[in-house]
Amino acid sequence: MKQNKIFRLMVLGTVGLMLQACGIPELTPKKEDAPLPDSFKSGLTDQKNTGIVKWKDFFEDPNLASLIDTAVVNNKEVNMLMQRISVAENEIQARKGAYLPFVNFGAGAGGDKVGTYTRNGAVESNLNIAPGQAFPSLVGDYQFGLFSSWEIDVWKKLRNAKQVAVFEYMATNEGKNFLLTNLVAEVAHSYYELVALDNQLDNLVQNIEIQQNGLGVVRQLQMYARTTTLAVKRYEAEVAKNQSRKFEILQQITVAENRINYLLGRTPQPIPRSSNNFMEMKPKIVTAGIPSQLLQNRPDIRKAELELSAAKLNIDVARANFYPSFGIKAGVGFDAFALKYLINTPESLAASIAGDLAAPLINKNAIIAEYKNSNAKQIEAAYEYEKSIINAYVEVANQISNIDNLNKNYQLKKNQVDSLVQSIDVANQLFKSARTDYLDVLLTQRDALEAKKELIETKQKQVVAMVDLYKALGGGWQ
């Protein structure tokens, strides 16, 4: 007879589970698909990858290395993200505890009086707890003990939720690494911009000195009636224009210094730097390796991959909501109607144990919506993962091409500057011998100044392209 009851319960349980399975919507998760080419550029097959080089080894300028070291420690965004990592780590602990038994200590006190014309009241009216003593009108209830509850994780819902928290923690950590990559690159950008501005200022000061010397010559020639007042005024205007540009560059230098200090998490102060040999600086050779290495080196790709893994597992968590949940509750302690009897053993000793089963049957709209949302988020995460891979490949390919074109551009601009510098002396000699007009001298000086300015900017772009390729390869967080 007992076996028949157990068999019927098993059959009912199986039928119940089948009914639950029939109520789960059919959804199709997305399979990520982002194939990478074998190389970034035809002919580039070297597997050496600068992206794995530590930033302390990559940046050889000691001033820049010191600034980056300070930024990594003090930057406010990094420190804020470290707290988010702590939150994600604590979430793992919280979800881990969810599938373990809960044991609580509890105590309580109260009283109860029932109506006389009720079943319990009628019983109490005719009940004596001692000879000649009536049942008390107010019955106390004092208790304390241990109470336990445990949800049996049959469908791995709670354990999967804990693993989701692990993936999210790891993704947050990769987010920190991606932030460090961008921070290192941003500090380097601003540093090289500051050094380039120093060189722009030196170039402008030198040009102003040349024009002031030319102004002195023009004034002397005016005294001997060999030129006009117009030439003097044009020279004075050109000198004044360049002197005004000097203050524009000084303001840009201040802004660049303050930007670096902001990245370093401190108030404005002078930035130590090496500006003298900037134009002779040879950008470091960066080897790109092969595209598949991006999957390991780029923190943003690894972050997207972990978020995708968490999204996949969240579908299983949401699906488990359709199945029955099993729980056990138990308690042991003391219970009495008067304090003086509370710790009497075994009379006041009380214990309880119960099991429960609950399954959604009618109105599953909330769990269906949650299940659909988890599937939609998985599809979104898959697209995000594919996008991050494509974006990484494009960034590297662009910087490889950019570096090649900038090297060619720099050499041609250098030739232009050399020719214009030589033409200034020629123009001055021709002007002194009255064989050319003063405008030719002014225009030659102006062209030389502009060409030197562009040459310095091109050098800055070369160095920045080197940094950007290093960042695109996933360097800067190690």
Kindly summarize this structure in a few lines.
This protein is α+β, with helices and mostly antiparallel strands. It has eleven helices and six strands.
How would you describe this protein?
This protein is α+β, with helices and mostly antiparallel strands and 478 residues long. It has 2 domains: 21-99 and 155-193 and 278-323 and 368-472, Outer membrane efflux proteins (OEP); 102-152 and 325-358, Outer membrane efflux proteins (OEP). The chain is 63% helix and 11% strand. It is built from 11 helices and 6 strands. It has helices at residues 2-22, 55-58, 62-74, 76-98, 119-125, 157-223, 229-263, 294-297, 299-320, 365-432, 438-472; strands spanning 102-112, 128-130, 133-134, 139-152, 325-336, 349-358. Helix 6 (157-223) packs antiparallel against helix 7, helix 6 runs antiparallel to helix 11 and helix 10 (365-432) packs antiparallel against helix 11. It is elongated and about 145 Å long. The chain starts with a helix and ends in a 6-residue tail after the last helix.
Short key terms for the protein model shown above:
11 helices; elongated; Outer membrane efflux proteins (OEP); two-stranded antiparallel sheet; 478 residues; alpha+beta
Helix content: 55-70%
CATH hierarchy, class of the largest domain = Mainly Alpha
Radius of gyration: 40 Å
Q: State the CATH architecture of the largest domain.
A: Up-down Bundle
Q: What is the helix/strand order?
A: HHHHEHEEEHHHHEEHH
Tell me, briefly, the overall form: elongated
Helix count, per DSSP? 11
Per DSSP E runs of 2 or more residues, the count of β-strands stands at 6
Kindly estimate the percentage of residues that lie in beta strands according to DSSP.
5-15%
- State the low-pLDDT regions, or none: none
Alpha carbon gap, first and last residue = 69 Å
Structural class by helix and strand composition = alpha+beta
CATH topology group of the largest domain: Outer membrane efflux proteins (OEP)
Biggest β-sheet, characterized?
A: 4 strands, antiparallel
Give me the CATH superfamily of the largest domain: Outer membrane efflux proteins (OEP)
Oligomer: single chain
How many structural domains in the coordinates?
Answer: 2
Overall pLDDT: 86
Identify the strand order in the major beta sheet.
1-4-5-6
